[in-house]
Amino acid sequence: MIGTRGHEDTTALSGAQATGPNPSSRGSRGRKVYHAPSAAIPLRIMRHALFLRPWTPILLLATWLLIGCDRDDDDTPTRNPSIDLLTDPGYTYASDTFGMGDSLRVGVRIRRGDDPLRTFKVLSRYDGGPDSVRDSMAFTADTLAFDKVIHLRPQAGTERWTFWVQERDGDIIRRSLTFTVQ
Known about the structure:
3-stranded antiparallel beta sheet
């Protein structure tokens, strides 16, 4: 109830009504100032809430990535293609030292892994220089048998021969032999 000018009797009001105007709160011109009821949040909790607010999107994104990522995806093959060298008599299957101008026969057998095969190449590199393509072919079969006769240079040095296969998804598997020529 409102009594005389500037006085308010709050004893007759209910608890909800008592939170309205505060009789001791007066503005600069003597008018009553109304305050909304506060939830009495401790300052230390507010500091933590303000500290976490900028990090919330980052924490949510990190949580989503950790929960949403699956390590058992189809991008990693369970079986890679294989490049095997023939070890039969007359075939060279290991790196070794040979004489200048020698001829070597290398037999390569390639088997498909989980992904289809796309390209086969034979690369050579002399004395640590750049690779150069000696043979290249596209193929989609599950296996490939390839024999290569390598004529070593008539000069001393090193030769590296690489047998290279690429799967349809871009993965590359290599097998190399290094020959020291004397």
